[in-house]
């Protein structure tokens, strides 16, 4: 598979990546649709392929506007937009939703189709000023129709379409269960796929090769997208119980000049203690438990804990109520591997290895319960 091409990032704008499959789609449009226009409108001559190329480029820009609308709505709610990706099946905007809520989720989902419908309206207005029969009018007609179809299709109430995400958010809001919303919208996505197949089987219809191929691609897209949405929700459910405050270890701070005997005494008091060695406000590292065990008992009083120091990357503090997907995402993105935890009655610290271990256990437990 050809690597994605990064085509731009301006200021606060998200990264835009174009998949190799998008260029394949552009080529297919130029060849296939250009040939169709040449056959149906012979007066165009070679310009039929030029019209098909213009249509492909403007269609790509329409998809980009669709995804930028998603990104703009997400950023309006304070969500971090990571990238926009254009592929054979259209586009996808990846973002990290902070404190996601049903209403916000629905608005972000509907922003994309709304942008396409606005483009279709602008195209209809522009058509009034273009002379019939000309190449510019033909291209504008094609793009206007495409935006109308893309906007309307994405509003269908089934995952992974934007309308499906809006339905999932609505059911989430009414029932209080995000899982119920996703599952219902996934079933509706399957029904939309079934309707597309049924359309081909209507009495008297003989679908052409192009229509058949497009329908197969759309059906596979819908079924795979619905399946992925259900799997993502299942993962979200498994990670939901994880909480920074529950995973944090109790913390004790030692001065580099403190004797090893004090560290040993604290370890005997509670083996879960993370013993941080700090000089003033600067954390230097943690006590190396293995090195601590190698210190002779006779030298424990005279040996400073600095001798058993293990350098550790400390990062910024995190809140004790940080949980679920947001906790995992934060652990992946924050610098350092040890983070002080705020909001607890006693000093505590969260270790990256503890988060990783808890995530692995949660996902494994979910797999076992499903297979049982």
From TrEMBL:
Descriptive protein name: Site-2 protease family protein
Family: Belongs to the peptidase M50B family.
Localization terms from the record: Membrane
Membrane topology: Multi-pass membrane protein
Family matches, as Pfam families: Peptidase_M50
GO annotation, cellular component aspect: membrane
Peptidase M50 domain sequence ranges: 54-127, 140-186
């Amino acid at each position: 598979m050809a690597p994605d091409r990064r085509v731009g990032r301006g200021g606060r704008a998200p990264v835009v990546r174009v998949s190799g499959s998008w260029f394949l789609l552009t080529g297919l449009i130029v060849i296939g649709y250009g040939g169709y226009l040449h056959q149906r409108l012979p007066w165009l001559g070679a310009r039929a392929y030029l019209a098909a190329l213009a249509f492909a480029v403007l269609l790509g820009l329409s998809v980009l506007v669709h995804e930028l609308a998603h990104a703009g709505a997400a950023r309006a709610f304070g969500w971090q937009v990571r990238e926009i990706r254009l592929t054979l099946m259209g586009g996808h905007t990846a973002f990290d939703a902070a404190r996601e809520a049903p209403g916000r989720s629905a608005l972000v989902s509907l922003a994309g189709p709304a942008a396409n419908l606005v483009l279709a309206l602008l195209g209809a207005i522009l058509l009034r000023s273009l002379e019939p029969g000309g190449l510019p009018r033909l291209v504008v007609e094609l793009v206007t129709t495409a935006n109308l179809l893309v906007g309307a299709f994405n509003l269908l109430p089934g995952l992974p379409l934007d309308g499906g995400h809006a339905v999932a958010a609505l059911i989430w809001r009414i029932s209080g269960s995000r899982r119920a919303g996703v599952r219902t919208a996934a079933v509706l996505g399957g029904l939309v796929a079934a309707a597309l197949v049924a359309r081909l089987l209507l009495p008297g219809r003989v679908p052409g090769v192009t229509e058949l191929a497009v329908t197969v691609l759309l059906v596979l897209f819908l079924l795979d997208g619905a399946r992925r949405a259900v799997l993502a929700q299942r993962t979200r459910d498994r990670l939901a119980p994880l909480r920074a405050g529950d995973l944090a270890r109790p913390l004790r701070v030692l001065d580099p000049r403190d004797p090893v005997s004090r560290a040993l005494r604290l370890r005997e008091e509670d083996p879960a203690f993370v013993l941080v060695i700090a000089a003033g406000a600067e954390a230097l590292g943690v006590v190396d438990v293995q090195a601590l065990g190698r210190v002779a008992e006779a030298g424990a009083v005279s040996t400073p804990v600095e001798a058993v120091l293990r350098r550790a990357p400390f990062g910024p503090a995190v809140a004790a109520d940080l949980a679920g997907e947001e906790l995992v995402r934060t652990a992946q993105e924050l610098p350092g591997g040890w983070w002080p935890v705020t909001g607890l009655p006693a000093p505590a610290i969260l270790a990256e290895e503890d988060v990783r271990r808890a995530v692995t256990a949660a996902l494994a437990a979910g797999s076992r319960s499903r297979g049982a």
